Amino acid sequence: MSALPSERSYDAVDPERALKYAIQHHTGDRVQIVEGIIEPMAPGWDHESVASHLRRQLTAKVFELDCVMGAGDLDLPGSSNWYIPDVAVVPASLAKGSGALLPDQTLLVVEVTSDSNGDTDRVVKRRRYAEYGAPLYLLIDRRDRACTLFSEPGALGYTRAVGPLPFGAPVELPEPFGLRVDTSGF
Fold it and tell me: What are the sequence ranges of the domains in the chain?
């Protein structure tokens, strides 16, 4: 005998899992979840220009490291967060056949601020990427026209920051990258 609707238990529904399932199977535009709020991903061309300028500089090193660079999904399990970074570098072996990755599986995560959500990148994502172990977080802040590289993640945030460095000043990415990023085109 099946239970009547009034006798069904909805307590077993995991809200985090349901929310993440819903956005993964959304048929419209790409969306991310930031602190439980669904945000559409619709960067403008000026935003994409900055990300593209960075990608061009990273491409040779990414191939040398046998990595993949893109804007794939990052899950933050145990939270209501599902991010789509502007640029992420991950080992090629992890990118094959997988869905979302975890921030600690990246080598580098980059966010380029937009007018509509800059504080999310500056505060919320910085804290969460550190909490979930992303080793390097590069914040390209278009409002302040500066870049900051965060490293040494921990539960309370990143313990090392280089910057903010004004656009035009180089950003030194440590190993495994070991390269200087020219920010004059940002």
Answer: 5-181
Per residue of the chain (186 residues), give pLDDT as tens.
455 555 555 566 676 777 676 767 665 667 777 877 777 777 788 889 999 999 999 999 999 999 999 998 999 999 988 899 999 999 999 988 767 899 999 999 999 998 888 899 999 999 999 999 999 999 999 999 999 999 999 988 999 999 999 999 999 999 999 999 999 999
Longest C-alpha distance within the chain, in Å?
71
Give the integer Cα–Cα distance in Å for 79 and 87: 22
Nearest CA to 101 among 132, 74, 82? 74
Q: What are phi and psi of 62, to 5 degrees?
A: -60, -45
* Coil, helix or strand at residue 108: strand
Q: Does domain 5-181 have CATH number 1.10.10.10?
A: no
